[in-house]
Structures are given as C-alpha cells and as structure tokens.
Amino acid sequence: MMLEGNNWYEIQNAHQVATPALLVYPERITHNIKRMIEIAGDVNRLRPHVKTYKNAEIIRMQQAYGIEKFKCATIAEAELLAQCEAKDVLIAMQLVGQNVDRFFELVKTYTATKFSMLVDDLEHAKLLCEGSSHNKVITPLWMDINVGMNRTGILPDESAQELFKFLSENNHVQAMGFHVYDGHLRDSDFQQRKKQCDECFQAVLQLKDELSVQGISVDTIIAGGSPSFPIHALRQQVELSPGTVLLWDAGYGKRFPEMQMQQAAVLISRIISKPSQGVITSDLGHKSIAPEMNFPRIKLLNAKDLEQVSQSEEHFVFNSDHWASYKIGDLIYGIPMHICPTVAKYEHLQVVKSGEVVGRWKVGARGQKISI
Q1: Which phi-psi region, left, alpha or beta, contains residue 312 (left: φ > 0; alpha: ψ -120 to 50)?
Q2: Cβ distance 99 to 77 under 8 Å?
Q3: What is the pLDDT of residues 48-82, one digit of tens each?
Q4: Which residues of 209-247 are buried (b: 16+ CB within 10 A; e: fewer)?
Q5: 164 with 113, same domain?
Q6: Residue 149's CATH number
Q7: Number of domains the chain is built from
C-alpha cells in the first residue's frame, strides 16, 4: 500500500469533509507568525501582505502578536482588514477608474483605519490629488519603485525625483515614502539572493540621498516580499511585507528552507476513478488548485509515487506503477506549489486541530467586493 499514514497533516474525521478541500493548521500558522517576528527583530517593522489568505482569523492571529500594519491588493482585502480594526492598511496597487471612488468611500466608512495606496506616475498622482481635494481628505501615497521586476513602479531616476517632490509639496496628499517590491529575486542560495537584493536596493538608497540633498526627506521604505524580507530585515528604517510566509507552500519551502517556516495549508482530495491500467484520477481539478504552475503542481505527502500527468476543471490525472494498491475513495494529501491563488478558490478553509477538522474560516476577501 503506497498511502502512508500517521502524519501531522492527517485528519481522523475525513468522512465529514467534502473534497477537494483546503485544510489549515493554526498551530503551524502561529509558528510562522513567531518566526516572521523573529526574523524582523521588531514586530513594529512588519507590514504583512494578506493576499495569500484573505481571512479574518489569520489577520487577528497576527494582531494578537502586536502586528497592526498590513498590506493588501484589493479594496475587498482592505475592507476586511478594516473590519478587523487594523490601524494602518496599504493597498499595494495603483488604483484607477471606479476603484479610486471605492477607495475614498472606504476612507469615509472606516474612519479608525488609515488607508494608503501606491502611485508611480505623475499624471496619475495629479488625478489622485484632484480626487482627494474633491472628497476633502488628505490621501497617504507611497511611491512605487521599479527595481527590476518590471511589473509596476517608476524607475529610480529623475522622473522619480520629480514625482516624489510633487507628492511632498501637494497639500491634498501625504508623501509616505517608497514602496519597493523585488519579487523577481528568488535565488535559493541566500548569499546570492542577498547580493542581488543589495544591488537592486542601492539605487533606492541613492534616490533617497538625492532627494535629501534637495531638502526632501523619505521617512519610510517598505521593501520586499517573502523571499527577500530576511535580507531587508538587516537594514535600518525599512518596513517588511512578507505574505506567503503565513501559510507557506511547497514552492517556497523547497527554495528557502533557511527561513524555517512551516507549511500550514494542505489540499485534500479523493481518488474517484481508475480508468485504465496504471492511471488514477482524483477530484482535484483546475477549480481547486492554482493551475498556472508547471507539473508538479502539488507536493504529494502520502502518495509520493504518483506521477502528475494532466489536469482539467474537475480532475487531476496521475500515473502509478502501484496502481493496484490504490482504491476508489482513498485520500490524497498535498501541499500546493503556489498557495496564494489556490486559497482564493475556496469559500472556506477547513480548520484542523489535534488531527480533526473542528471548524471553518471564511475566505472573506476572495471576491472583488465585500460591501464597498
């Protein structure tokens, strides 16, 4: 029998769980929170990203350890944080169109939370200033800097100086500082990753110095994601914004073992068919796990001999040399290679304590909108 038993991820009441499902383990999440704080050195330096889990209970677990600043990607995530009474929320996106109006509605609705957003373009900044004036608020803005990922951000050159100077001098916005995301730096060797990260960050420090010469101070820099936040933790006056570390996944677990995070989210599925000799099919389809990764898309925990062959909306097909050992209904446990978009596929997380599913946590910000 190729199904291994008696492991940390197993649940004893699996008969009560409809598959596919996503299990979460609060004790492991707590370990990751403590480890995140240990790496940061000071809980006040942390601004974790909620995009991975989009869940109030995990937000509150962090708040219990003194974390009050957060980062998010959507208005819905920002509203969820406000409902959890988070004090400081950065929407790490360049908001345009109706989302700008929604931002101002958010500000007016949840007055106990300080909301901010990113900007990387002068004309966009001018429009946000007009919106702030119209809504009679002062909007905190972070200048997003492109250090090589080439996804968003302004290059740290003269145009960045012009933009930050504009933010600093305009009465309708508050220039908060720099936002620097270097998610393209994922070398598994820590020293090589640190070298690359330091080289990218040098341009940021140079920009800060050039602005200082002009009498413009940059009070705070938010830097990094999960792979680079231990490196940025070695710097002074830098806020850290990891996100994946809360649940961790098989991809980062393989690349960055030195972080000592624990995988805290497990997919559970069942074998539903053995359509031909050597072929096994489970109910874990595209709709239940992020499909953008190459195979393997999941790190199998208890059926390690299965070869991942193909996937469709409702089905995951494997090959096995031990075909006869598996039965219809057998459970398959695995860690997703990429957890962030996988969580958003589930309405609820199944909470596991002492080997049993004991409740459900709603993925409250998986959609585009909560109320605003």
Answers
A1: beta
A2: no
A3: 999 999 999 999 999 999 999 999 999 999 999 99
A4: ebbeeeebebeebbbbbbbbbbbbbebeebbbbbbbbbb
A5: yes
A6: 3.20.20.10
A7: 2
